[in-house]
Amino acid sequence: MMQTTLKLHGLVAATHTPMKADGTCNPDAVDTQAQFLASQGIKITFITGSTGESAHMQLTERKENMAAWAEAGRKHGIQFVVHTGGNSVADGRELAQYAVECGAVGTASNSPCYFKPGSIDSLVDCLAYEAAGAPELPYYFYDIPALTHVAFNPCKVIAACAAKISNFCGVKFTNPDLALYIEALNYEGGKYDIPWGVDEWFLAALATGAKGGVGSSFNYAPKLYQDMIRAFQAGDIAEARHLQQLSVKMINIIAAKGYMGCCKAIMGWWGVDLGPARLPMGTPDVATLTQLKDELKAIGFFDWAINK
Amino acid sequence: MAIDTHKLGLFYKEKLLNEVIPFWFPRAVDEKHGGLYHCFDADGTMVDSDKSVWAQGRMAWMLLTCYLSIEQNPDWLRWAESALSFIEDKCVTPEGDRMYFSVTEDGTPLRLRRYAYSECFAAIAWAAHFGATGDPRSAERARHWFGVYADIFFTPGKMLPKTTGKRPAENLGCRMIMMVTCQELRKYLGDEGGVYTAWIDRCFADIQRLFLHEEIRAVVENVALDGSVIDHFDERTQNPGHAIEGGWFLLEESRRRNGDPKMVEVACKMIDWALERGWDEKYGGLLYYTDVYHKPVQEYWHNMKFWWPHDEALIGTCLAYVTTGEQKYAEWHQRIHDWAFSHLQDDEHGEWFGYCERDGSPANGLKGSLWKSFFHHPRALWHCAHYFGAVPAVAPIHSK
Fold first, then answer.
1. pLDDT digits 0-9 by tens, A17-74
2. Which residues of A touch B156 (CB under 8 A)?
């Protein structure tokens, strides 16, 4: 196992990829995005993951976004982990190599998922191929079975990764199964870093032992989760439950209107114009956004979502 | 120096009702094609029959603002509706997604611009029309055109680029106009779930983050994406009138927010710095363009005295005085008032000249153009009269 000081503790924002009206990428906006997140106390981001729409991006676009983060991250004091995963392991390796050039602090990848690996060994071969692009950086497996439909027991994957990937250091755990999570957290004495990835279950993950999470709603509602962590650490479980319920309500409201496009629109309300979500995701129209704001206001979103 | 705000309020109201409205109306009304003319020489002779779509929305809004605050004069409503029908019938593109910038008198389209100010001026006019009539279709149109405005200016890449994009910049103007447009829509449609207030919050945050430069005491209108000054001609150029205008939009907003001290502070800085930089010590009046680093300006009308910065300065200093009670604003108001009414004012035919030379002599007799219409000057008279207590706030006749 790689010895590393990197820990995805606290809130790691899984960032959106800024786009323009026509759906092309807009790396110029990363500076404002990083400035905003830094102002909210975010120290690490996870770029071009699911929230970053990387599954629908070209290799060159992912590199351009990464290069923008290299600059903006330095300027605003934010470290970034690059998600390299996709269906092409060759692209993944190339992105990992580029992540080294860009000064990323780690890489991560999910499983290929068009043709799926049929065994843990096959999965880990894919991951190893990508991780080898940045052997000097810590590498995380990004487990998100709801989207990849590749579901192996995470502890068995960890064991196989540990044997085959010298820089393996943890799993971004986007799987709501807390029984699997507690096993992964405590695997071999808890030696791996296992950030949680399901924002709606964040409190449960904290109770299970999570030290932090990687999530999309940390972009637009960081204060909510910071308050939740504080309440949990102070032993105020009633307050923490209340905040988790707000998180669930918030996400349900947004998801009902088209999650990705609405999240990007909300970032615009905070002054970070990220443009539309790319095809095949939709862009909310004005009437939808009015409704969205109405419903979010009704749960107090504008009072508790961000630090002012 | 003390100023008699009561007397000044009455003065502005009197100018508005007995001089400015009669200059424009009924001569502006196009009874044949509908819509409003606005290109007039000093004595009111029409010098161009083309119609600016901005002017249709702005003039309709101004008429409706008077209608809802001063007097329910049926002519004012009818003229405003003529402009609004003309916009609806003639100024919208066949696709229905944009408005033209200018059309001929019969509505033949002449020019579509990249940006969407026609749309937002139409939106405030429709909102005021909803306030006057309660017609839900007017509210719907206001919302629709507001949405188009927001989309074009705030969705990156939506607006066709003017340049190669290799020197990306953020712009103050669209945020200022967003604020005042939201204020107008909120007045008549309500806050609609906080949509309008949230936009104003966002623009206020942007102003502080990007455009307000303490270190050089300047509002920089076009900055790099991180707010830094772009040290080139176009981006160094600033119009003091804009900063003052943005300042009073914020002061107006602060009145809704229990005098929000941060908002008042930022607004007063915008006004103070622009007056410091813009006032012409040699001839008086406000220069049109200055350079943020006091370098030479490239535009060659930079030293002229245009009407609208003086209108904005009247409002800005009036409202800053009413808000803070600081003596300096009374002095500034009087200074601008005295200069403007002794140079821009046309006592013979009424209204202000649009364009004066640096020394304050009229550059020509123009009272109305594609840019100057029944808008900035009556708006200033209305607001100063209102803030000095001579004109009540607008009161929507039909609440939603």
1. 999 999 999 999 999 999 999 999 999 999 999 999 999 999 999 999 999 999 999 9
2. 18-21, 26, 28-29, 273-275
Chain A: residue nearest B197 by CA?
A: A269
CA–CA dist B145, B388 (Å, integer)? 33
pLDDT in tens, B333-364: 999 999 999 999 999 999 999 999 999 999 99
Tell me the ipTM for this assembly: 0.75
Q: Which residues of B touch A269 (CB under 8 A)?
A: 198-199, 202
Please state the three-class secondary structure of A226-244 as a single string: HHHHHHHHCCCHHHHHHHH
Residue B114 buriedness (CB in 10 A; 0-12 / 13-18 / 19+): exposed
Tokens coding A58? 């070209």
Half-sphere exposure of B358 (CA within 13 A, CB side): 12
How far is the alpha carbon of B155 from chain A, nearest alpha carbon, in Å?
5
Arithmetic mean of pLDDT, B314-342: 98
Task: Answer yes or no: do A269 and B198 touch at CB < 8 A.
Answer: yes
DSSP H helical ranges for chain A: 30-39, 59-76, 89-102, 120-131, 145-148, 154-164, 178-185, 202-208, 217-220, 222-233, 237-255, 259-269, 286-298, 301-304
Burial zone of B361 (CB within 10 Å; 0-12 exposed, 13-18 middle, 19+ buried): exposed
pLDDT digits (tens, 9 = 90+) for B15-46: 999 999 999 999 999 999 999 999 999 999 99
d(CA B226, CA A28): 10
Is the pLDDT at B400 greater than 60, yes or no? no
Contact A302 B154 (CB under 8 A): no
Asked if A264 and A276 count as a contact pair (C-beta separation under 8 A), the reply is yes
Best of A28, A257, A270, A295 to disrupt the B interface by mutation (most B CBs within 10 Å)?
A28
Nearest by Cα to A82 from A1, A142, A148, A169: A142
A208/B contact by beta carbon, under 8 A: no
Angstroms from A26 CA to nearest CA on chain B? 8
* Catalytic residue annotation of A: 142, 172
Which contiguous run of DSSP H or E holds residue A271? none
Q: How many residues does chain A have?
A: 308
Q: How confident is the model at residue B162 (pLDDT cuts 50, 70, 90)?
A: confident
Structure tokens at B138: 């007017």
Do A248 and A240 form a contact (C-beta atoms < 8 A)? no
Q: Which two tokens stand for residue B87?
A: 């916009």
CA distance B290 to B218: 11
Q: What angle do CA B46, B312, B142 make, to 5 degrees?
A: 75
Q: What percent of chain B has pLDDT over 90?
A: 96
Helices (H), B257-365: 261-278, 307-324, 327-343
